[in-house]
């Protein structure tokens, strides 16, 4: 299917129905979706990733941030990614309920996407879907993903600014996950600051950030109580501040190179999965001699 210019124009104009339909095309890799992406004029709006462990308050924070951004009369797109099982509608439903009051607001577009397994594939999808949103007249795009831990989405490179949301109880875990977290966090949020030990935890986090030695940006550690909308203006300010930095040419090129690498890898690996490899290997083993390198070459040559 060839995407018609009407579809592309409507995305550029911000037509919600066309955007929704196009995201579904991309999500399901319906024929013609690559042509659609290639035809879009993708702009340069900030993409802000909000990530953190399950239940940290990411959706509540997105909700509060949305209210704050609407104060400035911005057009906001929100992508909520649920990498858990497709049967876990609880989280999505929860998001819907909380964000419900904004569904009718013409400045807001909210989309949930669930995954059907492959986590690696998910981050590629998020890149493609945020690009559909970036072709529409939104001023800012917020992407919520569950991260940190087992179901970690490859968040690096997805967002211009990545906000990592933690809760005071994360104190013990922080040691084990700190390496990866430090890499991806542009802003740390200690949410549920209404709970005990939040300030203490934030202080430890600050020490950890400092011990790393900042380069051009020292990752701030902010306290929020998302459900009470507390600490949100400061968060917005830091996001905007970081985004100004992220807009420089070098960083932009770096981010694009990460995205390009992921998308090329996705295309190269298309149709290949572990199960298929396992099946083929079993079959060949049953026939006798097996040379791993000859086997692998076959797949390398295929592309
Ligand atoms: N006490 C307190 N509770 C909060 C705060 N922020 C969120 N919560 C509660 O924590 C629970 C989880 O909040 P969510 O916003 O759904 O968290 P999430 O990180 O989006 O959760 P998943 O998407 O399921 O991973 C809800 O019951 C919220 O009401 C906060 O600042 N203080
Ligand atoms: Mg959520």
Structure, described:
With 303 residues, the chain is α/β, with parallel strands linked by helices. It has 12 helices and 7 strands. The protein has a 7-stranded parallel beta sheet, with helices on both faces. Strand 6, helix 8 and strand 7 form a beta-alpha-beta unit. Helix 2 runs antiparallel to helix 6 (119-134), helix 4 (58-71) crosses helix 9 (232-246) and helix 6 crosses helix 10. The protein is globular, with a radius of gyration of 21 Å. Residues 85-94 have low confidence and may be disordered. It binds guanosine-5'-triphosphate and magnesium ion. Magnesium ion binds at residues 58-59, 91, 95, 144.
Shape: globular
Q: How far from one another are the termini? A: 23 Å
Structural class: alpha/beta
Order of helices and strands: HHHEHEHEHEEHEHEHHHH
**Estimated helix fraction:** 40-55%
Count of helical segments? 12
In total, the number of strands is 7
Regions with little confidence, pLDDT below 50 for 5+ residues = 85-94
- Quote the average pLDDT: 84
The strand line-up of the biggest sheet is: 3-2-4-1-5-6-7
């Amino acid at each position: 299917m060839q995407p018609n210019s009407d579809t592309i124009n409507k995305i550029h104009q911000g037509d919600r129905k066309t955007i929704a339909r196009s995201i579904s095309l991309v999500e399901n890799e319906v024929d013609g979706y690559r042509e659609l992406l290639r035809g879009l004029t993708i702009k340069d709006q900030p993409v802000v990733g909000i990530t953190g462990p399950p239940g940290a308050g990411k959706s509540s924070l997105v909700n509060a941030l949305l209210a704050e951004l609407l104060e400035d009369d911005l057009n906001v797109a929100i992508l909520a990614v649920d990498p858990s099982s497709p049967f876990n509608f609880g989280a999505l439903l929860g998001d819907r309920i909380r964000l419900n009051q904004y569904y009718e607001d013409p400045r807001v577009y909210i989309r949930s996407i669930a995954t059907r397994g492959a986590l690696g594939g998910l981050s590629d999808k998020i890149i493609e879907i945020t690009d559909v949103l970036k072709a529409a007249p939104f001023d800012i795009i917020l992407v919520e993903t569950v991260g940190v831990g087992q179901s970690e989405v490859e968040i690096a490179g997805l967002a211009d600014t990545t906000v990592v949301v933690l809760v005071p109880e994360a104190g013990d875990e922080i040691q084990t996950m700190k390496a990866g977290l430090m890499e991806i966090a542009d802003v740390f949020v200690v949410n549920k600051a209404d709970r005990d030990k939040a300030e203490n935890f934030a202080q430890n986090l600050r020490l950890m950030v400092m011990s790393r030695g900042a380069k051009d940006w020292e990752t701030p550690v902010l306290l929020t109580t998302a459900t009470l909308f507390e600490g949100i203006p400061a968060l917005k300010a830091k996001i905007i501040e970081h985004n100004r930095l992220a807009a420089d040419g070098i960083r932009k090129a770096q981010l694009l190179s990460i995205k390009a690498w992921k998308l090329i890898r996705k295309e190269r690996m298309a149709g290949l999965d572990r199960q298929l490899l396992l099946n083929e290997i079993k079959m060949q083993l049953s026939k006798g001699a097996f040379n791993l390198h000859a086997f692998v070459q076959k797949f390398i040559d295929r592309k």
